[in-house]
TrEMBL record:
This is Antibiotic biosynthesis monooxygenase. GO terms for molecular function: monooxygenase activity. Keywords: Monooxygenase, Oxidoreductase. It comes from Mycolicibacterium fortuitum. It holds the Pfam family ABM. Gene3D superfamilies: 3.30.70.100. Residues 11-99 form the ABM domain.
Length: 108
């Protein structure tokens, strides 16, 4: 389960994929499958959440890793690279960045 807190010990990946709306369901399913079959077993993986924009042109993967080093190690995993390549083939572009949590707010 994803928990967002500040300060957070985790590294947060936010990867925004731009996609043709008709291919968005395919990308969502591929990310779901990659997370279930591969990513959740990679050392340091904490959680992932896959979001689809209401206009169908963006798919966002919000994932937490124990440390930024764990995320970078995953990038070298052949199983993960295979899935990432398939995602890149579906998307028209993608923009991954790793973040730290700086502030969290809740309804008062």
């Amino acid at each position: 389960m994803t928990t967002i807190q500040a300060p957070s010990p985790h590294a947060t990946l936010i990867n925004v994929f731009t996609v043709e709306p008709q291919r968005a369901p395919e990308l969502v399913e591929l990310l779901r499958q990659a997370t279930e079959d591969v990513m959740r077993y990679v050392p340091g993986f904490v959680s992932a959440n896959i979001h689809l924009s209401t206009d169908g042109t963006r798919v966002t993967n919000y994932a937490q890793w124990r440390r930024v080093e764990d995320f970078h190690a995953m990038l070298a995993d052949p199983r993960a690279r295979e899935h990432m390549g398939r995602c890149a083939d579906i998307a028209t572009s993608f923009e991954p960045h790793v973040y730290t949590v700086e502030s969290v707010h809740q309804a008062g």
